[in-house]
Amino acid sequence: MATPTAVCQQCHRTYVPGGGSRRTYKAEAEARKFCSTRCAGMARRRNLRGQVIGNWTVLKRVPGPPGSDSKWECRCRCGALRTVHQTTLDGNPRGCMKCSRVRHGMARAGKRAGTYAMLIAARYRAKLEGIPFSLTLGDLTIPDLCPLLGTPLGPAESRQSANSPSLDRIIPGKGYVRGNVWIISSRANVLKRDATLGDLDLLTTNLRTRIESMKP
User: Fold this and answer.
1) pTM above the 0.90 mark?
2) Domains annotated on the chain, with CATH
3) Cβ 20 vs Cβ 26: under 8 Å
């Protein structure tokens, strides 16, 4: 006589009701058609199909092995299809890895783009100084040459040098807003600081006069 079997409605695995396995419970299997109490408990969780959670749109449940956490096939807002654990959806559903890399300014595996560090630092300074801030990563592009001094800009590293790229407000009082910022060399930013054009013209005029007067 063939051994009676059943298909778990949660994990979709074939099991033997009351077959003696430590993970098989006859009463639970006969009552709800589940291979274990854990699968029964997981099946009693809310149905997420069709819900929008964070950046994910839940499409359908993905079958898994007995006793495993529920998995769902989801579509990220960027269009990517991924299998997502229910614990992730219940916790901190922020989207796929690609979206996470963009959000955190990841240029390549394990390293952030230099513009991301500039953006975070600028947002912090704007909060301290109480000035407007509305920049995004898309607003920041590091040029090959410093727009003021014409010198090549080096890599954006944690240790600053004279040629390191530096975010500057063209008109300091307007804050960090689109159209009022550019990336120049660290040396140019130190020279400029919060000086006006009048201050810089006066400085260069007086310095030129002083140097000329010292010539024999």
Assistant:
1) no
2) 6-41 (no CATH), 52-103 (no CATH), 114-198 (3.30.40.220)
3) no
What is the rounded CA–CA span in Å between residue 81 and residue 57? 10
Q: Which amino acid is at 21?
A: S
Residues facing residue 106 across a β-bridge:
112
Distance from C-alpha of 115 to C-alpha of 101, rounded to nearest angstrom: 13
For residue 173, give the 3-state DSSP assignment: helix
- H or E stretch covering 98: helix 97-103
Per residue in 51-87, pLDDT (tens digit) is 888 888 888 888 776 556 678 888 887 788 888 887 7
Beta-ladder partners of 85: 71
Phi then psi dihedrals of residue 58, to 5 deg: -80, 125
